[in-house]
Amino acid sequence: MNNNSLYEHNSIYMYDYAANSNWTSFILEIGKAHEVHSQPIAVYAIILTCLSTIVNSVLCYVTLVTRELRRQPLYACVFNFCFMNLLMGLFVTSLVVYHEMSPTWKLGLFVCRAWVILDVFLPFTSFMTLMLMSIDRFFYARFHSFYQSAKFRFQREIYLLIPWIIGMVVVIPLWVGGFQQSPIEMTDMCVFGLVDEASVASPILVFFLPAFFLILVMIITHFFSFRKITRASARSISSRSAGTPRDQYGYYAYENNFSAVTLYLINVTFLIMWSPYHMMSLLLAMCLHCMPPYSLIVGFTYMGTTASSIISFLWLTDYHVRYSLKHVICDRFKKVKHTPSNNVSLTLLEA
Q1: For residues 264 and 215, what is the distance between their CA atoms, to the nearest angstrom?
Q2: Count of alpha carbons within 13 Å of 109, Cβ hemisphere only?
Q3: How high is the pLDDT of residue 34?
Q4: From CA 260, how far away is CA 313, in angstroms rounded?
């Protein structure tokens, strides 16, 4: 789950490492630490996999069965984000259990490479989904009239496809074309590294450059969203808070009331949880002799991986996601007919 995904083998100490002392010492440290930390890491990975699967499956299901949510491009992005994190839990985090519990890698070279690439590809596509939603909110806040008139057919489908296309254009060529064979021959291990140029470019293109752009979009959107409210807008907000029927807003209620603060909260949490890992990756790529302790590598790595489970909880701060979840629980599981309220009661995050 870093630029070099490694699986330890007992025969590693039989190699001659004179030509690659720095690489060798790093491998040896991982081999020793693996014996100590493998069980706790495996238990944490199991908990994380189960949590990610349950949370993201529920949110995906809620957005699919709720017609008002699945029709909206923004909530289609919420589904996309949760689906990516679901795949992260099923196909990336779950293999960590095999990584920690099995002494050798027996799944083959193809699975090894696919696993490491997915570990970069899925978080990046999640990041691009948040970027797309933030850009959408910027145009909504800054060019509201143009935004309303520029709606087009298949907008939802395009919103769903854009993150996947960007991910394939950026990550796949970088990690397939930049593959570097291990400097020492290792059997029964999964070793995937990048050439020097690709190892430096990867954290910059996958995280730091998008992060800079995302922060810029958030600041500009915040400036236009919280500027002085016009008299007409004030009347609209006042009437909505006073209990204007939801039907009056119709199709656009889900767009107009989408919580920008929820999106900001998720963006900031995503950046905080993934920043240490990418900083460490960039440091290792630029400084060949800067090998951090194994415990620090594991900590930063799983700090980012935990984002695939924890961040999905934050979508519940959005009113429409909460209401839809309540609706599904009442109508689908308890078989109780729940009639939607005519009044929209917004929390501080949506107000």
Answers
A1: 10
A2: 6
A3: 62
A4: 16
Neighbouring C-alpha atoms within 13 Å toward the C-beta of 201? 14
45, with CB counted inside 10 A (0-12, 13-18, 19+), is buried
Helix (H) or strand (E) holding 62: helix 21-65
Q: How far apart are the first and last CA of the chain?
A: 39
pLDDT at 233 over 50: no
The pLDDT tens digits for 302-322 are: 898 898 778 999 999 888 898
Show the beta-strand stretches assigned E in the chain: 179-180, 193-194
Q: How many CB atoms lie within 10 A of CB 120?
A: 24
Cα–Cα distance measured from residue 27 to residue 184, given in angstroms and rounded to the nearest whole number: 11
pLDDT at 236 over 70: no
Cβ proximity of 309 and 84 under 8 Å: no
CA 227/CA 142 separation, integer angstroms: 11
For the stretch 91-142, pLDDT in tens is 999 888 887 887 778 888 888 889 989 999 999 999 999 999 999 989 888 8
Q: What is the CA radius of gyration of the chain?
A: 23
For residues 279 and 140, give the distance between their C-alpha atoms in angstroms, rounded to a whole number: 33
